[in-house]
Amino acid sequence: MAGLIPSHDPSDREIILKEMEQVFIENLKYAADKLQQEGMMTIIEPINTIISMPGYFLDTPSQAAAIIHKVNHENLKLQLDLYHAQLMAGNLTGLIREYLPIIGHIQIAQVPDRGEPDSAGEINFKYILDLLESLGYDGFIGCEYKPTTEKTEDSLGWLKNLQSKN
After folding, report:
1. Are 105 and 77 spatial neighbours (Cβ–Cβ below 8 Å)?
2. pLDDT (tens digit per residue) in 126-145
3. Which of 124, 126, 90 is nearest to 110 (CA)?
4. Catalytic residue from among 19, 26, 133, 144
5. I need a labelling partner for 154 at 20 to 30 A (CA). Which of 70, 117, 132, 161 fits?
């Protein structure tokens, strides 16, 4: 986790952000090495600061990509959570195409309520999943949504719903 930006005098913001980035980069270099030795991938996830985590340091896919580039380690990838990405940047098609080479994991949930992928919202997951397939994405796609049903199993109908739209 990148951490929260501490309270500060607004005139100190750029200095604090630069220091946070330097520490984060050094920590990521260390973590990427250690995790690679254990056969595990290192991923970083930008989290939206609008709803989920106000003040979080790493909040956009472009910022995460820049940090990945600065760390320059083969074992550091982007966890692209489409819920957070839509809130902070939009243009999911463009983000997926641009960052596909550095994506290590994708998470999905509907915007704005973080519901099931087939619930009402801003993202057309049938389109997004077809896009990922057409681009050759073969990694994992995790679900981080808030089920609208009592049992999580009952909230998985979206799998059939999206498949039946082919």
Report:
1. yes
2. 999 999 999 999 999 999 99
3. 124
4. 144
5. 132
